[in-house]
Write a structure and sequence with these properties.
Blueprint: H1 14-20, H2 24-27, H3 30-38, H4 55-63, H5 87-96, H6 98-109, H7 115-122
């Protein structure tokens, strides 16, 4: 699906984009929640940012919650994906989610993301 986000001429494939917005965490993305706050938030209002790669450590550091004590909710509809995305798919996703990356850059500029966290996100793309 990610490979089909853009036509060969670079235009967004609207049908695929609509399909992406059916997925809850893509429709209500980082920018969905973050963008309205960026104009009014000040760095001291940000308690912290919890990142997927450092979830347990972030929960402990920011929220004082030991993630080891939290039980994962079972989701029978969850299925494993046996392959990584190829370069075209990753680059299409980065392009499609550009507003999320802009929000992450703003959070980094506020000091809410460390240089290491920001670097990991911004350099995770695969160039074709």
């Amino acid at each position: 699906m990610a490979r089909s986000l853009y036509w060969s001429d670079g235009r967004l494939n609207q049908a695929v984009a609509r399909d992406f917005h059916v997925v809850h965490h893509l429709r209500e993305s980082i920018s969905f929640y973050c963008r309205p706050l960026l104009a009014v938030v000040i760095p001291t209002n940000i308690l912290g940012v919890v990142c997927q790669e450092t979830l347990a450590a972030d929960c402990t550091r920011i929220l004082g919650v030991d993630a080891a004590e939290v039980r994962e909710r079972s989701n029978a509809s969850k299925r494993a994906i046996g392959q990584d995305l190829d370069a075209a798919a990753v680059n299409n996703l980065k392009r499609f989610l550009v507003e999320d990356y802009q929000c992450l850059a703003a959070l980094w500029s506020f000091g809410a993301l460390s240089d290491q966290q920001f670097w990991r996100v911004m350099t995770s793309s695969v160039e074709a």
